[in-house]
Design goal:
With about 270 residues, this protein is mainly β. It is built from three helices and 15 strands. It folds into two domains: about 70 residues, no CATH class; about 180 residues, Galactose-binding domain-like (Jelly Rolls).
Length: about 270
């Protein structure tokens, strides 16, 4: 006799597996931390590999690109510092899965210049579908080292949903969106340097719609939000156009269909 599962159980398994595994946590090689630095205890050291638990996405200094031509030094410990010329801004793209919720960003920096500060910033570009108007940048948040000497952390950014196609500039039209983080070093020499940025994020489930798709899963019912997300993603259409049949059993063949759709499996061309 083949095993049977309730429809809700099978779909939740499909979602858990379909979400996949997140990027593994990496430690940036840095010089010994000074006395005035602090360790961000809120940052998870062993993030969840899947599900909606918090995870860490590390962008090392080597992945940042200067916005202007300049002279710089990349140390064996992983830091980038200015070696000549005026200060400049370094930036790196953020490539998290759509639907990710960015909770916090932390920049690891070194600052021994009293009057000058290192600034960390993050935001997104609106990439319009037509050439007019042109691309525009929206800043989400920024913070600076505030004159703290030696090794320290710059905490910046608050909860922001990663969406690659929506109305970022509130002009009534959805456009493509690209995200980036930047570090500005205002001084020359080794008084200012940075090792990279750690992004703390978690996966999310789509917000519940105002109305129900199925008459047997009304607004507020158990699993309503998750079922509606599966329907919107095309993973299931219910047992008919107006019923989900949440208490019905599902065969192994039906479960295979759910999993294949959730994982995006397909034959090679």
């Amino acid at each position: 006799m083949s095993r049977r599962f309730t429809l809700i159980t099978a779909l939740l398994v499909a979602v858990a597996v379909g979400l996949g595994t997140g990027p593994a946590f990496c430690q940036v090689a840095v010089d010994p931390v000074g006395d005035n630095a602090f360790v961000p205890e809120a940052l998870p050291q062993e993030p969840d590999g899947f599900g909606i638990g918090f995870q860490s996405y590390v962008i090392p200094a080597a992945d940042f690109v200067p916005q202007t031509t300049l002279e710089y030094t990349y140390s064996g410990a992983g830091y980038i510092s200015r070696s000549a010329g005026p200060g400049t801004t370094w930036w790196a793209p953020i490539t998290l899965p759509a639907g990710s919720n960015v909770q916090m960003m932390v920049a690891l920096v070194y600052d021994t210049d009293g009057p000058s500060d290192i600034t960390a910033q993050w935001g997104a570009y609106t990439l319009h579908q037509s050439s007019s108007p042109g691309p525009g940048f929206t800043e989400f948040s920024n913070a600076s080292s505030s004159g703290t000497g030696g090794y320290t952390y710059i905490w910046f950014a608050g909860p922001t949903m990663i969406r690659y196609y929506y109305d970022l500039n509130s002009d009534g039209t959805n456009d493509w969106v690209a995200y980036r983080v930047s570090i500005t070093l205002p001084a020359t020499g080794t008084a200012m340097r940075f090792a990279g940025v750690v992004v703390s994020w978690n996966r999310t489930i789509s917000a519940a719609p105002a109305s129900a798709t199925f008459v047997d899963v009304p607004v507020g019912a158990f699993g309503f939000r998750h079922i509606e997300a599966l329907v919107a993603s095309g993973i299931t259409g219910g047992c008919d156009a107006t019923h989900f049949c949440p208490n019905s059993s599902v065969t192994r063949a039906q479960m295979a269909v759910f999993l294949a759709k959730a994982l995006g499996l397909h034959y090679e061309d």
